Each structure stands twice: as C-alpha cells, then as structure tokens.
Write the structure tokens for this entry.
Amino acid sequence: MLYFIHQFSDISVIFNLFRYITFRSAGASITAFFLCLWFGPACIRWLKKLKAVTDQEREYVESIHHLYKEKKNTPMMGGVLIVGSVLASVLLWGNLTNRFVWLILFVMLWFSAVGFVDDWLKMREKNSHGLGSFTKLIGQVLMGLALGIYLYMDPSFSKYLYVPLLKTPVCYLGLLFIPFVILVLAGSSNALNLTDGLDGLAIGCTLFTATTFAVITYVTGHIGFANYLQISYMPQAGELTVFCAALAGASAGFLWFNSYPAEVFMGDTGSLSLGGSIGTIAVLVKKELLLVIVGGVFVWEAVSVILQVVSFKLTKKRIFLMSPFHHHLQRLGWPESKITTRLWIIAFILAIIGLGSLKVR
C-alpha cells in the first residue's frame, strides 16, 4: 500500500524511498516485530480465555510427559499472531501489483487455515488427534497441486531444476514439476511442524531461514546481482524480500513470548503456515534444493522421524531413543534450553553456508 507513495516523489524526494525494496523490507520487518510485541499479550489472554491450552498429552511419548508438566496450561494456536502480523505488514509495505506477493499470502493463509482447524479440533476434543495426519496431508497436497499447476501453465516460469554450486540447471522437469512442487510444500510444512517441539526451537530456526531467504530473494530479483552471482534471474522475485523480512520480524516478535519458558506456542496454525510459506518461497526463486541446506535443522528433524519409522518396521529396532531428534536429546538428559540454543547455532551456520553457496559456482 505504502509502495504507491513514491508517485508523489515530485512533491518530496523522501517519498521516492518507498520505491525501493530494501527500504520497504526494513519497514515490513520492524512493523511485523512490533505488531507481535503489541498484540502478543492480548493474543495470549484471548487464547487462555478460549482454553486453547496444551493440556492434551500425546500418545507414544509418555516417557517425556514429566518434562512438560509446567507447560500444561500454556496456550497454543499462537500462530494466528505470526500470520496476522506478516499479513498486515506485507499489505502495508508490499507492492500489491506483484503476483508473487498475492501467491505467497494465499499459500500462507491456506496452510494456516489447515493448521487452525487442526488446533481447534484438538482444543474442542481435548486430545492430540486433531485433523489426523492423512487429512492434513490432503490439505498440503491440494495447495501444492494448485501452485504447481499455476506455475506450470505460466510459460515465463522456469521448470528447470537448479542445484547449489552449479551455474546451469541440471534437468528440465516438465510435468514432473507439479509433483515436485507438492513434495517441496508438503515436506517443508511437515518438517517445520515436527521441529516445533521445544520452546523457541522452530521459530528461532525460522528467523534464520527467513532472513537468509530475504537476501536470496533480493539478489534473485535484482538483475545486476543475479548476473554477477550467475544465478537464475526472476524479475518479480525481488518483492518477496518484503515478505521474508516481515516473516523474520514476526518470528523475532513471537520468539519474545515463545522463548523458554514459553508463554505461548504457535501450534499447527503457525508451523504449517511457516513451513508452507518457506517452501513456496524456495519454489518461486528456484532455490528448492538450497532450502535443504538453509533449513537443514528442519530437514534433519523430519529425516530422524523417517529413519526411526523405517528402522523399526524393518528391524524392530530404533535408531534414536525417540524422534524427532530433539526428543532424542531430551532422553539423553540434555536441558531443553541447551538443545534449542545449539540447534539455533547449527541453523545460523547453515544459513551462512547457504548464502556462501551463491558465490561458489
């Protein structure tokens, strides 16, 4: 909305600032951060009034229930605060004539709706079942299918697969591009959802990932930087920097309340929407495989679950004491705050590696 103020630059040169993505991205990040801080206490009180609290114990994890007794009355569904802050900030600072902006907002709202229904059912039924894994997967697949078909039908959008460290694309996906998009969106949303098990863990890693992709989207949408780095140039991708910056700001604001000991949890409302949004960003800027590096903590958490399930089905033996991996560390006796901090450090290092890979080709 504020983007259009640059049309009055003949009145004052200050208005010309709103033309620049960097200026508006900074504004979106700060706005989202302070919206979270401002509305956070009211949101927490509202969720407590709704009795949207984490008093449901999950099956098959009885061995760590004692670690979560103090969290029994902590409200969930805090993802509404993140989504609302990002949405308001992007609508305020983004260029609303850019189709990628509307695409990413629609994806975020879709995934947040799926997560909200899941959280609402858990709250209403007072158990940990919610929508069920298959139903949630259907919601994720439908969004991936819609996005995949839309981009496939767009002749200007590349269907090539790019690999980090290589200058040229590896192969043309063709029709396989559609299931590939489904895999990225479903995988990223589920991976972040699995990571959301400790205070501040998922949102802290999201902060690093969103900040990294803010840089990636900017250079991808800037023809000068794209040519210099020899990466694929996406003309409309630069505006996604505003979204990534808003997501980073909202993540920092939510972390204020979600850090140990957490006052609120994001729930599936937050984890599914954040994961789906990050996956969509990766697809739109053709950095799907780079997401595996930058979001390495999310990937490892998901892989640990897959390895555990496959190992038990094939050998009746478990690789980890418990999955996802952060629960394995808990069973080893690691304090929750230490697990979170060390995984944050790893997420930061992976973010630096991801950015460094843009130049190493």
Notes: The chain has a mean pLDDT of 91. The chain has one domain: 22-292. The first strand starts at residue 160 and ends at 161.
